[in-house]
Amino acid sequence: MISHFRLFCIIGVAACQALAFAVVDEKKPNIIFIISDDQTYESVNAHGFKELKTPSLDRLATNGVTFTQAYNMGAWQGAVCVSSRTMLQTGQFLWKTKQADKNLQTIAQKEQRLWPQLLKQAGYETYMTGKWHVHVPVEDVFNHVVNLRPGMPKQTPEGYNRPIEGELDEWSPYATQFGGNWAGGKHWSEVLADDAENYINQASKKDKPFFMYLAFSAPHDPRQAPKRFVDMYPLEDVQVPASFLPEYPYKQEIDCYEIPLMKKGKVVGTKLARDESLAPWPRTEFAVRTHRQEYYAMITHMDEQIGRILDALENSGEADNTYVIFTSDHGLACGEHGLLGKQNMYEHSMRVPFIVTGPEVPAGEQRDAPIYLQDAVTTTLELAGAEIPDEVDFKSLVPAIRDASADAPYDRIYGAFKEDKQRMIRIGDYKLILYPEAGVVRLFNLKDDPDEIRDLAGDPSQWARIREMFISLQELQVEYGDKLDLSKSYPDLTLR
Fold it and tell me: Where does the secretion signal sit in this chain (predicted)?
């Protein structure tokens, strides 16, 4: 017969074991956030762009939910990546983040309200490798930081104003002597995958959930990749985009060509925008094909490294309890509209891939409602059970991820470049683009004209739509803290 004491011990041990299993079952999910640089939405094979080879991103899309209409909200300066990545840290819309950027070190060091810090406070071990480009010391934000990269790999003079057909091209994407992504002897994308593999192996042996911020420099220029990836895209097979132009007719108005050179508050000359200097003006089909070849090669090379990361996650045993989000900081023009940068309001430069996989995420589904890529902040905070501060503006995508019939998070998408250069609003299938300094209006039907070739602004039948969208944009300006007075440039469109 079992004594009362022994029975008590048996019950106690069983209770402890049950509690231990409960704790294991309730372990918070891990989160891996993978962000590329300059990657347009039309750069994933699974999204219908069959010219590109992206088996690892296709693998993510097959196993998760793809948001087909993910946007960056814009930038307050030419380095669009700074604005995009800083919005990721604050979780706030563009103009609020511009103000926060002035006090970012205080927010990070004293208030500890940046995205990874909120996850850290929720019990996460946080890890970062790759590109940062945010105006705060990264060590203040993450537990672990390795191989921190600058805003962009160093470009060389040979990498600009090229190629010119019939002339010797001194630059090569796989010539390691040009440095850039090859600096240090091993391609930066491969180093990042090494870092991620090592950390996954370490983190899987710990009890704490982890948050990984993996920031590729690819496919930002200098667009470099091993030769075998360049050889995957023979130049004669690379297509020129449907919206190709030798020169963009508004290149000066949008501040992407001749930018004022200031000294002591006065204009002393002009300089060319860096991105737009990569190929000669006017653009040629040969130059555009070459740049696209190198762009594709770099994406496919990065894709292979993402496959290594996904394999490491599978081998660690943590895959079933890990959310993976893949996106980019913004898109890029690579010959479209005669442009080579991202300082514009076209889809190729504002829209990015956005894929989510993980527990309770449906496999192989798409969501066509427009979102912002920075919604990743609120989404991961909700998935982690972390605090979502009142000042966070971007919205959680958790309802949309789990239920295709969930309400769309936004009924309008807003975009801006610099304080006075460009504005955009998208409502439904229509997008209105404004160049205030020149008084230019552009209107596109994205459903009928996804390449944004046919400007409808001159069609009298669209006047009412333009005015309605303009007024809606003004409403968003007030809501988002955009102080540009559009009525001065467009008095005929403004409500009286």
Answer: 1-22
* Mean pLDDT value of segment 11-22: 45
Task: Give residue limits of the domains in the chain.
Answer: 29-411, 420-496
The closest of 447, 427, 443, 445 to 435, measured between CA atoms, is 443
d(CA 341, CA 78): 10
Cα 473 to Cα 327, 356, 411, 416: the distances in Å are 26, 30, 12, 11
Residues 6+ apart with CB under 8 A from 306: 34, 56, 57, 60, 193, 326
Q: Is the dihedral of CA 85, 89, 91, 97 positive or negative?
A: negative
- At 455 the pLDDT is 98
Which one is the CATH code of 420-496: 2.40.40.20, 3.20.20.60, 3.30.1120.10, 3.90.78.10?
3.30.1120.10
Residue type, 73: M
Alpha helix segments (H runs only) across 280-395: 285-316, 347-350, 375-383
- 432-458 pLDDT, tens digit each: 999 999 999 999 999 999 999 999 999
Q: Whole-prediction pTM value?
A: 0.93
pLDDT of residue 253: 87
Beta-bridged to residue 433, according to DSSP, are: 424, 442
With b meaning 16 or more CB within 10 Å and e meaning fewer, what string describes 65-86?
bbbbbbbbbbbbebbbbbbbbb
- Give per-residue burial for 419-452: e unless 16+ CB within 10 Å, then b: ebbbbbbbbeebbbbbbbeeebbbbbbbeebebb
Structure tokens at 95: 């103009």
Mean pLDDT of the chain: 93
Q: To the nearest whole percent, how much of the chain has pLDDT over 70?
A: 92
CATH number of 29-411, picked from 1.10.10.920, 3.40.710.10, 2.60.200.20, 3.40.720.10: 3.40.720.10
Residue type, 335: G
Tokens of 47: 């999204």
What is the torsion angle, in degrees rounded to the nearest 10, for the CA atoms of residue 60, residue 61, residue 67 and residue 70? 60
